Amino acid sequence: MTRLALVGSGPDDEAYVRVAPRVSGATVAAVSDGAQAGSGNVVSAPTLADLLEAHADAIDAVIVQTPTDERASHIKAAAADGKHVLVKGPLGRSSAEARETANACAGVVFMAGQIDRYRSDVAAVRASMDAGQMGQPGLVRSHRWQPPPTGWRLDADRSGGIFIHELTRDIDLAAWLFDGPPDTVFAIARGSDSDRPDAAVVHLGFPDGGMAVLDVTTALPQGEAYWSLQLIGADGAVYADDQHNMQLLYAGGSPAARLTSTGDATVLSQLEAFVGAVNNDADASASVDAGVLALEVAEAASASAASGRAAMRTEDGYVLV
Q: What is the pTM of this model?
């Protein structure tokens, strides 16, 4: 039995509660920092510090989904108490902070969430590549269009803004699909508030001529977010988006399209990977290295957008040229 604590509230709170019992007997046993677990025999505490002080023996691992600027302290506190850690979203506000946090997690399983890798459509794209159907990847193109952020996400000092909080997801996917880091980064960003742009485009150049073009906008006026991914390789191409389960319904009058949900499949796959690593005492450092890389590239993209210059990867990290 792996007893999980949700630390901080996120959109998947209820999903974790639902799927945990399907994952090697795991269960959500505790919540803190605003997380919700619904009904059941779940320990609750105002903060992670309170939870560890009063109920440390009730949990084995934590899922951290607190505001970005608070994650490092929560990760370190959990690891210091011997708890395994899964982090939702970016590992922290900066790559330096993420590296320091990783060093503090020796002795426990520390995993970067990288939720988009566990989407069924993205898994199918990766499977096609691994089967040799795409050939050498040449171009990755992703588009994410979503409503404006709310709460702490509005404060770029807390969330990291569009590059850290939003684009690290797509940067991670691009580097994963190309199996390595980009050697060049160029970005532009726009918005009515120069300190908080609501649209950005990032161009990544990879060795052997591959490239990725990633764009995100948080200016969707209303409705559900939209995401798409295209990959063009030497021998084939593949496309995925989150509208693939659109159904056309007709009951008289005008037909209406309705998006059917993929349910908890993504959260289930992610949690299976984490609990499996905990149960097998597996090394999850590759996910953390990828999370640090995504932050390094996001920082280079932010610097590029601010300066109008490209960034090159060197032995000392990304440097503007």
A: 0.92
